[in-house]
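Weekly puzzle thread! Below is a chain. First person to post its structure in token form gets bragging rights.
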Amino acid sequence: DLQPSAPPIYLLAAATGTWAMSEATDVGVDHVVLLKISDKATPEQLRQLKDGINSLRVIPGVVDITIGPIFGEEWMDDRRQGFDYALRVRLLSKEDLRSYQDHDLHVKVKKECIAPIIGGPPLAVDWESPLVVGERSSGPDVKGVDHIVLLKVRDETSPEKFQRLANEANSIATISGVVSVTVGPTFVEQWMDDRRQGYSYGIRVRLSSKEALHSYQDNDLHLKVKTECIVPILSSPPLAVDWESPLVIGEQQSCR
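Winning reply:
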């Protein structure tokens, strides 16, 4: 597996519009799971899925959660690869991810809410990254959009190219409507099942709305990052999914 070095930790200072080094405490883990839902799943089962996942906010170490059906718009390329539901859990650390995976409530939700309605193996990826905050904030009652891009990269990709990708991807937090960004190599620990399906790099952009996503896709800076930093290192087309969801804050977190 490709394990490039972690990107430098930058935060955008909204007051000055400049980038500054952040403390290591800003580093967390994004845990993303993509599902193919069975045709036999009922609306009640999908409601139970959403409620069950959001109930995981009580688990220690959970920072925030989003979950929802993956959508497509006529102005978007369809890169969903058959997945139609997604969830993301932000955790404080790899240690918290392990505790989360073993927690009785998480095991119960997987068994009772996820397993009965999936129509194929889920895709699950995790990456460790600072949270780069844009100029727009998003509270628990704001129905924003999570935009996830997963990459399969060429074996010969140099550390310098990974470093540039990390730096440039983080810079998209300056685009209007972007709430936050995380970016990093996916990882698998000894205690984890490998469900990445070959995806070795992840980018997550939280946006304030579908309209903000549309503007983001057409933004010159986004197009530059895509053309100069992402396309040259790809070994196959990326997977990209979007879902609309409130940001459900972890019970032990006062802020993201």
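Puzzle host: Confirmed. Bonus trivia for everyone else. Residues 1-25 have pLDDT under 50 and may be disordered.
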